[in-house]
Amino acid sequence: MDAEPVTSYAAVKHLILERIRSGEWPPKHRVPSENEIVSEFGVSKMTANRALRELATEGELVRIQGVGSFVAERKGYSALFEVRNIADEIAERGNEHSCEIFVLAQENCSPEIADALETEIGAPVFHSLIVHKENGVPVQLEDRFVNVAAAPDYLEQDFTALTPNVYLTAAAPLSGSEHMIECAMPQPWECKLLVILQTEPCLTIRRRTWSSAGVVSLARLVYPGTRYRLEARSGQTSPS
Predict the structure, then answer these.
(1) CA 156 to chain centre
(2) How many CA within 13 A on the CB side of residue 137?
(3) In the structure, what pLDDT confidence band is assigned to residue 83 with cuts at 50, 70 and 90?
(4) What gap in Å lies between CA 48 and CA 69, rounded to an integer?
(5) Which of the listed residues 71, 95, 123 is the one where a domain comes to its end?
(6) Domain boundary among 71, 97, 120
(7) Residue 80 DSSP code
(8) How far apart, in Å, are the Cα atoms of 148 and each of 101, 110, 153, 231?
(9) Phi and psi dihedrals of 72, rounded to 5?
(10) Total-model pTM
(11) What sign does the CA torsion over 93, 192, 80, 148 have?
(12) Angle at the Cα of 155 (from 101 to 212), degrees rounded to 5?
């Protein structure tokens, strides 16, 4: 069977982009489904799928499984080497922060977690797994382990009202931090919580924080690559 001409899906992409950039389809506008594109433009479902898929990869659309495709807002961003509150970052962009809590419990340290928190294997540790959302769209998965001695009231907090960052900053004031960054494909369970496809690359930060008394927490922060960006700036960036 002959392949469809490249101009077919490229033309569909071009027409969708024209509607986005003209303002006809503003951010968060639901774009036509694959079947609707097939009907409107007279192309195959494969062509419609490829056009939507590529636009999502390029950051023009956000595709939410089981819901549809939407015009992307300007990408959110996070300061790369600052330990900032994600709710504040979202509010600064004029958007609404919300979150969903999947785990908030006391567990026993695995060897890896014990090593990171500089404690004993099997020692008690607090574990939280939270998905942060911007205007209802998941933008960060926060998988955090907390030193029990540093923040003894951690499990009693309402993390729908304040973030772990806010609580920990007050309970164990920051004296230092360590960041490790990588780009990785998401695990199946991460895709489910972030509502993304398994083919979407993610940015991951592994962050340890210290107070004067020692290590406070280890957090793994996962950002969908098409929805968020990380920024860093140092030194003089404009004439004095």
Answers:
(1) 25
(2) 27
(3) low
(4) 12
(5) 71
(6) 71
(7) T
(8) 19, 15, 8, 31
(9) -75, 145
(10) 0.66
(11) positive
(12) 115
What are the phi and psi torsion angles at 133 (to 5°)? Answer: -125, 150
Q: Which helix (H) or strand (E) holds 28?
A: none
Q: What is the pLDDT of residues 180-220, one digit of tens each?
A: 888 889 999 999 999 988 888 898 989 999 998 899 999 99
Look up tokens 């006809």; give the residue.
24
The confidence band for 75, taking pLDDT boundaries of 50, 70 and 90, is low
Residue 209 in any domain: the answer is: yes
In the chain, how many domains are there? 2
Positive or negative CA dihedral for 88, 28, 193, 178?
negative
Task: Work out the angle at residue 209's Cα, subtended by the Cα atoms of residues 208 and 210, and round it to the nearest 5 degrees.
Answer: 130
SS3 77: strand
198 and 104 housed in the same domain: yes
